[in-house]
Design goal:
By secondary structure, this protein is an all-alpha fold. Helix content is 78%, strand content 0%. It is built from 16 helices and no strands. α4 packs parallel to α13 and α15 crosses α16. Keywords: Membrane, Transmembrane, Transmembrane helix.
Length: 338
């Protein structure tokens, strides 16, 4: 049976769903879990190395100094999202612990790897996405505990700071800089193999999903929470994501950004990081409540990947030349011209 192109299931979305199912029934445990996490981390390092090698020096400089774009993303992540969280936690049927989880979700930093990957797939400003998402993660080390303390009353936020900064520098910033420094030697080879970068984008996301979701399942994700609570949290996460996507799109247009920059705001401004959120929660909350606290974040994380994968593919199909060739090159879209 042949489906019309617009009704045909997206292969990457199907791969994401399959990954979640595999992680649910066959989660990695013990040494296998450590190995899965190592492979996922290695894939992310390779992904950022490729993006560093692909981007021109002009694109990196333009992305780094694009302060208006970064402020727009930060406003979404640490300003508008907490307001959405406060509004949604007013629902009378929401369990107090799950309500705290929703507030924690709203205070978490933006995810880096999938934001950059989806921006690249959609043909957006990859250089600015790398800088904006990394900045969000770095500031999130300080802002997320502060927001959690303000909204929920968490404690001991400072203990996470050093480890998070070191992880971000070694896993994301260092390989990006290494790839960019080696660009004169390998840049042409990378540009001639756009499919390699595309495969790395998608493969890194699938590996991260399996490692993170599998770890949650191994810790008893599906036995801690009832069906009714799961459905309610699922509904809240869907509403929050839809609102965030709509507000991100509106902000990009109202502030007059070009389409490549609007794509960055859309993907970086609407996401939340599971990789950064889980360790922060482990520091801020008692061990007995961490599982419930991070449940909304885990659900939101999966939904955002599936929805944003579809949106990214829609952009790529609409403008195939941007997604395949320029990789978000913003050399012609310098700050102030957005």
């Amino acid at each position: 049976m042949h489906f019309p192109a617009r009704l045909r299931p997206d292969g990457f979305v199907l791969a994401l769903l399959a990954t979640v199912l595999i992680a649910s029934f066959l989660p990695a445990r013990g040494g296998a879990a450590d190995f899965a996490q190592f492979i996922a981390d290695a894939a992310i390092v390779f992904l950022f190395f490729l993006h560093g090698a692909k981007l021109s020096r002009a694109a990196v400089i333009a992305g780094a100094v694009h302060w208006r774009l970064h402020l727009a993303v930060l406003a979404m992540t640490f300003g508008i999202f907490p307001v959405l969280g406060l509004l949604l936690t007013m629902l009378p049927l929401l369990d107090p612990d799950l309500a705290a989880g929703v507030l924690f979700l709203s205070a978490a930093p933006s995810t880096v790897q999938s934001s950059v990957a989806f921006t690249a797939i959609a043909g957006g400003n990859v250089a600015a996405a790398v800088c904006s998402a990394a900045l969000s993660s770095l500031l999130g080390v300080f802002l997320t505990p502060a927001l959690v303390t303000l909204l929920i009353g968490g404690e001991q936020a400072g203990q996470f700071t050093t480890a998070a900064i070191v992880t971000i520098m070694l896993q994301l910033v260092a390989p990006f800089l290494a790839g960019h420094l080696l660009r004169p030697m390998i840049g042409r080879w990378i540009e001639a193999r756009a499919g390699l970068v595309s495969l790395a984008d998608r493969g890194a996301i699938l590996l991260v999903v399996y490692a993170a979701f599998g770890a949650a399942v191994a810790e008893g994700l599906w036995t801690r929470t009832g069906t009714g609570e799961l459905l309610l949290v699922l509904l809240i996460c869907v509403v929050m994501l839809v609102a965030a996507l709509m507000l991100s799109a509106i902000i990009g247009r109202v502030l007059g950004f070009c389409e490549q920059d609007r794509i960055v705001i859309l993907f970086c401004g609407s996401k939340k990081s599971l990789a950064a959120g889980v360790p922060i929660a482990g520091v801020l909350f008692p061990a007995a409540t961490v599982g419930t606290i991070i449940l909304p974040l885990m659900i939101f994380h999966q939904i955002q990947l599936i929805v944003c994968a579809w949106i990214a593919r829609w952009y790529a199909q609409r403008n195939p030349s941007q997604g395949a060739e320029n990789g978000g090159d913003v050399s012609r879209d310098a700050p102030g011209r957005s």
